C-alpha cells in the first residue's frame, strides 16, 4: 500500500523566481524557482532550455542576458500556477519596471482562463515583489544585424505558419523555421518547406507533473508568450533577424466575458499581447518593435485558410490538431474529434472539395451527425466559443454559409442540419462577410520588405 502527502495549494503563500544561468559554451539556460509557505517545506523547481548554438563571437550577450531574465519570469508561470499564491517574488536581477508591468499583464490576461476554470472570482493580480532590480537605462547601439538578418519564424506544424513561411519565401526573405520541442509533425512540415529548421528543447521540472497529480492547480498558461521570448533569445544567439509570428486577427476575439472580466484562451496570440511584448523589449533589451511582429495579424482565420488551400504540398503533412502536441503523442495527424479539427475542416470547406478534405482528415466531418453539437459551439449557438485556438463565431458562420451555397457540400448532414435551423444560411450576408474577409487595421508597422510580403495576402 502506497502513501503520499497530498499537495495543498493553499499552504503556499509565495512563489519565487530565484535565478537564471546561461552557459555560453553549451548554449543552455537554467532557471530556478521556488514555492514556499510558513508551515510547509519549500519546493524547488529547475527548468532548462537548450538552444541551437551559434558562433560565440557573434552572440549579442548583453541583449541576450536581458531577454533571458525576462523569459525566466514568464516561464515561472508554469510552476506558479500550482498554488497561484498572492506573492510573486523576483530574486533574479535584471528586470526593469517595464518588465514587471509586462509580467503583471501576462499573469492577469494570459492566465484569465486558468483563473476562471479554477473557480476564482476574477483575474490573478499577485503582488510582484522585485528584490533585485537593475538594467541599463540607455542601450548602446548594437553592431549586430538585428532586423536585417534572416527572419526567425516559429512554426507549430499547422496552416498559419505555413502561410507565413511561403509568403516570406516568395519575397526572398529566407525564413529560418523555429520550434520549441519539435515533434514529428513540425519536422515533416519544415521538410516540406525546404527551409532550415532550428530548434530549442524545453525541459520542465518533472516535479511539476507529480504535483499536478497530487492536487496542484492546473490549467492554461500563455505558451505563445513563452515561445515568443524563447525565439527572441534564439535569434540573438544566431545573430538572426526579426521573430516573425503567424498570429491572426481572430486571436484577439475573447472566448467569453464574465461580469466585465474578459477571458481569451488565445490572449498571448492577441494584438494586445503582441504590442505588450514589442513595448517591453525596448527598455528591457534594447530592441525595437521591428524585432517581433506577426505577419498575419490583419487577417482572419478564414483568409489564412484560403492561402493555405493554395499550397497542396502541405495538405497531407500539416496538422493543427492538439492531439499531435501532447507529450506522448508520437507521430499522429488529425483526430477529427476536437474543436480545432472541426473548425479547420469548416474553414477549408470554403475552398476545397469534400474529396480533398477527406484526403487530408481521413473522414468527412461535415457528413457526421455526431459533430453537430461541436459545430453549435463554434457557431455561437450553444454556450460560448470553445476554449481553443479557433476562429470567431462570425468566421464559422460565414464558412458554413459558403458551404451551404456549394452544391458539393449541400447534401452533407451537418450542412443540411444547420440549413434547417438557421433561416437564410445559404444567403449572402454582405456586412458579415465583409467583416470576415477584409483585412483589419490591427498590426504593427512592418519593415518595408515585410510589408510587401504581407501585402500579397491583402
Please explain how this structure is put together:
- There is one protein chain.
- By secondary structure, the protein is α/β, with parallel strands linked by helices.
- It folds into 2 domains: 9-294, no CATH class; 301-437, no CATH class.
- Helices cover 38% and strands 14% of the residues.
- It has 18 helices and 12 strands.
- The chain has helices at residues 61-75, 77-80, 97-110, 112-117, 159-170, 184-193, 206-213, 223-238, 271-285, 301-308, 339-349, 354-361, 372-378, 393-405, 407-410, 413-421, 430-437, 448-455, and strands spanning 14-23, 28-36, 43-50, 87-90, 127-130, 152-154, 176-180, 197-203, 243-245, 256-258, 261-263, 292-294.
- The strands form 3 sheets. An 8-stranded mixed sheet has the order 5-4-1-2-3-8-7-6, sandwiched between helices.
- The N and C termini lie far apart (64 Å).
- The model has no long low-confidence stretch (mean pLDDT 91).
- Number of helices in the DSSP assignment: 18
Uncertain spans: none
Strand percentage lies at: 5-15%
Domain count: the total is 2
Element layout with pairings:
Blueprint: E1 14-23, E2 28-36, E3 43-50, H1 61-75, H2 77-80, E4 87-90, H3 97-110, H4 112-117, E5 127-130, E6 152-154, H5 159-170, E7 176-180, H6 184-193, E8 197-203, H7 206-213, H8 223-238, E9 243-245, E10 256-258, E11 261-263, H9 271-285, E12 292-294, H10 301-308, H11 339-349, H12 354-361, H13 372-378, H14 393-405, H15 407-410, H16 413-421, H17 430-437, H18 448-455
Parallel strand pairs: 1-4, 4-5, 6-7, 7-8, 9-12
Antiparallel strand pairs: 1-2, 2-3, 3-8, 10-11
